[in-house]
Amino acid sequence: MVAGSLTAVCLLAVASAPTARAAAEPVGDEAFLDGGEMPPHPDGWYAYGPVEGLPEYPVFCFEDELPAEGASHTSFWTELDTNGLQVIVETDDEDEAAELATALEAAAADCAADWLRENPGSTAAWDDYGSIVAADGGHIYGVHTAPPQGGHGVRLFGVGRDGTRVTLVDWGQMGDLEDAPIGDFSTTLAAALGKLGA
């Protein structure tokens, strides 16, 4: 009788104890930026998402750091060459989230040098635009790349965290670092961090 009761209790515990990932609430639409919160563009922004998982193509500079598990993303674009992306990753705990945010920041800081090694004869530059005081903190980086036979491109990356969630916000267009809208992008990242816990 005792053995049977113990077995029943164990089976009930196994059936009713979800994993940490399964127990986590999915990232809702309200946690994501909308087009109106991206850096202003004269033609406005289009958006697709959020959708579960990572984008179909690897995210420039973060191919090896962004996990597919727990990820959702929204893509942004304009009528011209400007585009953007927001990825949110729901992790199992705050330690994992902090570790992921640190890895993403390191990848952003190393991006220009890594790209140059893979593209000899090209030029690249980067800058650290500092921290954003919101949620558990954010940081902004800029990267400029110029292949020998191609156009110049500039990207801004914002990495931030709120609890168990980490976000990467990406903005890009043709040009160089002088063309990057640092102030507007800072506002965008602050908005992303403000919504991240929703």
UniProtKB/TrEMBL annotation:
Signal sequence extent: 1-22
Signal is among the record's keywords: yes
Record flagged with keyword Signal: yes
UniProt keywords, alphabetically: Signal
Protein name: Sensor domain-containing protein
Species annotation: Streptomyces radicis
Lineage: Bacteria, Bacillati, Actinomycetota, Actinomycetes, Kitasatosporales
